[in-house]
Write a structure and sequence with these properties.
single chain; 304 residues; alpha/beta; Serine Threonine Protein Phosphatase 5, Tetratricopeptide repeat; 2 domains; transferase; methyltransferase activity; Class I SAM-dependent DNA methyltransferase; Methyltransf_12; methyltransferase
């Protein structure tokens, strides 16, 4: 109640007394850290999160991310799988109301516009199979449905999968971590989307090394990123979401063997009234043409 009434310092004081009584309560240390953070006591927050880190073996509270975001530990640049799963399991029932109605979330709409334009320019009438990574409650899938023969949704959160299953948007749903799910596929999708998903993944190289082989030659990938203008290629924000620098991101895409078709800046949503600027990207795995196509047909080696 103190925290909700705008008194985080008082909430932290009371919570600290509580933790003297139950020092093994991981969720309590997470709350204490958040109260200290809101009160501007970053040293107190870091101390609480260090206690949390020692208790939370599976990482569901994201202590390592919280410490890294405040400079207390180096950022790994990787995905905190257990934290993201727990976050969206908790978030699922109120996801659409919070994101769309309160925060003005527009990423599925914006990505869909880019994909539609590229379909017209490339002469693509329909996609045979699309994979929607981090499908959530199906906001991106609803946009794609009419243009895809087989639509597959993948999400790390069982609660999100349950929410979207009620809509009947996807032909197949899978609960899985996205890199593991992509590694199980080889050139079987002609479209892969990731709307507001890679902001939890940090470094793009591991994702792209799994994603590109999962695309058919000529297949498209469309995704969003939060953006920042600093010198670092990837920056972990206090929100515990990663932001990517534009020039470095483009270089990573090219190094992964993708052709960049669209690379645009846009406001993705609002957070506490402030616009969150990001990047909207559409890229293509180069199609097999000419000599490479002949080698492919005769079983020769192909570099695509």
């Amino acid at each position: 109640m103190l925290a909700e009434n705008g008194e985080p310092a008082a909430a932290a004081e009371l919570m600290a007394q509580t933790m003297d009584t139950v020092p093994e309560w991981a969720a309590g240390w997470e709350l204490l850290g958040s109260f200290h953070e809101k009160a501007g006591d970053i040293a107190g927050a870091i101390a609480a999160w260090r206690r949390l880190e020692a208790l939370d073996d599976e990482g569901v509270f994201g202590a390592v991310l919280k410490l890294a975001a405040h400079g207390a530990e180096p950022a790994s640049g990787g995905t905190a799988v257990s934290y993201v799963e727990a976050l969206f399991d908790q978030y699922a029932p109120k996801f659409e109301n919070s994101l769309v109605e309160r925060l003005g979330y527009r990423v599925p709409e914006l990505l869909d516009e880019l994909v539609s334009r590229r379909m017209r320019e490339l002469g693509i009438e329909r996609f045979s199979k699309a994979i929607d990574l981090g499908c959530g409650t199906g906001l991106m899938g609803e946009r794609l449905r009419a243009r895809v023969d087989l639509l597959e949704g993948i999400d790390i959160s069982a609660a999100m999968i349950a929410e979207t299953a009620r809509k009947g948007v996807y032909d197949r749903l899978e609960k899985a971590e996205l890199v593991a799910a992509l590694n199980a596929r080889r050139a079987d999708a002609d479209l892969i989307t990731a709307a507001d998903v890679l902001i939890y993944c940090g470094a793009l190289e591991p994702v792209l090394s799994a994603l590109v082989p999962a695309l058919q030659p000529g297949g498209l990938v469309a995704f969003s990123l939060e953006a920042h203008d600093g010198e670092e290629a990837v920056f972990l924000r206090p929100s515990l979401r990663y932001a990517h620098e534009a020039t470095a991101t483009r270089a990573v895409l090219l190094a992964a063997g993708l052709e960049v078709l669209d690379f645009e800046s846009a406001v993705l949503r609002f957070d506490r009234g402030a616009p969150i600027t990001g990047l909207l990207v559409v890229a293509r795995r180069p199609p097999i043409t000419g000599h490479a196509a002949n080698d492919h047909e005769t079983g020769g080696d192909v570099a695509a």
